[in-house]
Amino acid sequence: MPNDPAPIAAAGGLLWRPGPQGRPEIAVVHRPRYKDWSLPKGKAARGETAPVTAHREVLEETGFRALVGRRLTTVRYAVAAGPKQVEYFAARATAGEFAPNREVDKLRWASPEQARELMTYDFDRAVLDTFERQPVTVTSLVLVRHARAGVRESWDGSDASRPLDAKGRRQAAALRRELAPFGACAVWSAPVERCRETVSGVAKDFGLTVQLDASLGEDAYRENPSGARRMLAQLGAAGRPVVVCSQGGVIPGVIKSLASRADLKIGPTSTPKSAYWVLTFDGTTLVQADPYPAPTVS
Length: 298
Prior knowledge:
Blueprint: E1 8-18, E2 24-31, E3 36-38, E4 41-43, H1 50-62, E5 64-79, E6 82-96, E7 106-110, H2 112-118, H3 122-131, E8 139-145, H4 166-179, E9 186-189, H5 193-205, E10 210-212, H6 218-223, H7 225-237, E11 242-246, H8 251-261, E12 276-282, E13 285-292
Parallel strand pairs: 1-6, 8-11, 9-10, 9-11
Antiparallel strand pairs: 1-2, 1-4, 2-3, 2-7, 5-6, 8-12, 12-13
Helix pairs in contact: 4-5, 7-8
C-alpha cells in the first residue's frame, strides 16, 4: 500500500485579552467562505515553524498583534486537498484593530462560555478547553541552547570567549525569526560569548541589551545546580516574556529539576545546539515544557 500523504501543516491561535473581573475574552472569527465561526488559523508558508505561522495568521485574520505562548493542542481533520494538521497556541493580544478582510468579515470578543456557544466546530471547543486548564496569568519563557561554535580544541583563546562559527551565526539569524512571536521584555545569557552572541540579534529586535548571569553557565551549574533553577523560576514568576540562553550542560538538568519539583511529566530533555524550549510558569512552578528543534539552516 502507498504511504499516507503528509498532512497539510497549519497553525492557529486562541487569541485572548483580559476581560472583566480578570476573566479572558476570546476572539472568534467568521469566515464568509465557509459560513463558520472559528479560531484564526491558516496554512504554513514554506519554511515557517508553527509558532511563526500562528502569529502571522492571527495578525492577518484579526488585525491584532499577539504574544504567542504555550502550545495548546494539535487538531487533525480531512479537507479536499488531503489530511490537515493544525497546531494551536495561546496568543495574548497586545495591540491592533479588526478590519474585515478577504478571509474574515466579522470578529467577536466573547467570554469563554459565549465563545463556546458561538464556535461551529467541536475541535475549536477542545482548544478552548485546553486553554482553560491553566490560569491566564501563566507566563512563558524561552530557554535556548547556544548555536554551534566549532570545537574547543580548535580555539586558541579561553573557552568563555569562543564565538559562533559560520553555521552558528546562521542558526542565530534564524532564531531571530523563530523567537519573535514569543516576544521579550528581557534577554538573559550565560556569561560565555557563544551564548551572548546567539541571542544578541533577538535582543536587538526588541530594543534590549543582553544581560549576563553566571548561574546560567556550566561552571556555576557544576558548583551549584540550584542557582540556574532559581533564576529561571524567578524569571517565570515575573509575569513577562523572557528569552534566556544557556549551555548543553545546564538545560537538560535544570528542566528535569523544575519538572520534578512540580510533579510534571515531560519527555527527553536533550537539547541540540540552537534548539529551544518554551517553559510556562504559574508563579515559580513549571506547568508546561514545549521543546522545539534547532532551526533548519544550510
